[in-house]
Design goal:
CATH class of the largest domain: Alpha Beta
Order of helices and strands: EHEHEHEHHHEHEHHHEEE
Distance between the termini: 50 Å
Strand content: 15-25%
Structural class: alpha/beta
CATH architecture of the largest domain: 3-Layer(aba) Sandwich
Largest sheet: 6 strands, parallel
Number of domains: 2
Helix content: 25-40%
Shape: globular
CATH topology of the largest domain: Rossmann fold
Number of helices: 10
Strand order of the largest sheet: 1-4-3-2-5-6
Length: 286
């Protein structure tokens, strides 16, 4: 018999009612926030959470406040039944899939804003995006009250922003950032990969290849960020259907660009492949 789907709830009250006895027994609660359309990247977070914690909670919520006016909120894949099937083998204790009205009831007026690390890269390309992310993550952490929450390295800037928020607000949760999961050819797993045609899927490899090139250059002793970025950009210039948004070599904590690679850096990239915007990154130790 296939494993049973995990318990599914839709309201904040049900989450609290379900978790109260676990908390009373001193169980370590782990939490994986997602927007659904689950792929192996999400499931690797769930697997790690289940291994490290006594109870695993997964949220599935396509959060409208982190999408801009011309972004893909309406067409973002919503596959709740498939997601529940995918979660079944992992022994998930609870899935929270709220309606928009449950998370943002009429009259909702509060935002959680993080400065500094939100202002570059994704923050510049997607104004308002991080305010939506930090507000919903703060709400979810308050609803679930886990000891540990799991995020993926692929959304690197998001993980830095969430860690900053948790530190600044003294939230009693540990943020675990787990490695990016990739296809065999290097493409980072993303729910938005579903939008790509077979031809665009090949073109999307430009992102991961540019990151590998940066790593090779740094390992060969190249240290000037401007030289590394120039070589990376050549790969994008060879793909007329791939429109570069940004490339950067940044400090892992501040996300500020570095001129010289003197210690660990994160190389960031974002690009449009057709109508689909993809991001990727790689941490490199010289």
């Amino acid at each position: 018999m296939p494993p049973a789907s995990p318990p599914l709830v839709h309201t904040i009250q049900e989450v609290r009612r379900h978790l109260e006895p676990l908390r009373a027994e001193g169980e370590r609660i782990g939490f994986v926030p997602t927007m659904g359309a689950l792929h192996q990247g999400h499931l690797s977070l769930v697997e790690t959470c289940a291994r490290e914690c006594d109870a695993t909670v997964v949220s599935i919520f396509v959060n409208p406040t982190q999408f801009g006016p011309n972004e893909d909120y309406d067409k973002y894949p919503r596959t709740l039944e498939k997601d529940l099937e995918a979660l079944a083998p992992y022994g998930v204790d609870l899935v929270f899939a709220p309606a928009v009205e449950e998370m943002y009831p009429q009259g909702f007026q509060t935002q959680v804003l993080v400065g500094g690390v939100t202002e570059l890269w994704e923050g510049r390309s997607r104004p308002g995006h991080f305010a939506g992310v930090t507000t919903v993550v703060a709400k979810l952490l308050n609803i679930v009250q886990p000891q540990v929450a799991y995020f993926g390295h692929k959304d690197y800037q998001q993980s830095v922003v969430v860690r900053r928020m948790v530190r600044d607000l003294d939230l009693p949760v540990q943020i675990r950032v787990c490695p990016t999961v990739r296809e065999e050819d290097g493409l980072a797993l993303s729910s938005r990969n579903a939008y790509l045609s077979p031809q665009q899927r090949k073109q999307a490899l430009t992102l991961s290849r540019s990151l590998q090139l940066a790593r090779e250059m740094i390992h060969q002793g190249r240290r000037r960020a401007v030289d590394i970025l120039a070589e990376m950009k050549k790969l994008y210039d060879q793909q007329p259907d791939v429109r570069l948004d940004y490339l950067a070599v940044v400090d892992p904590e501040t996300l500020l660009p570095v001129e010289e690679v003197a210690g660990p850096v994160v190389v960031l990239c974002a690009a449009w492949v057709g109508q689909t915007r993809l991001i990727d990154n790689l941490r490199v130790e010289p």
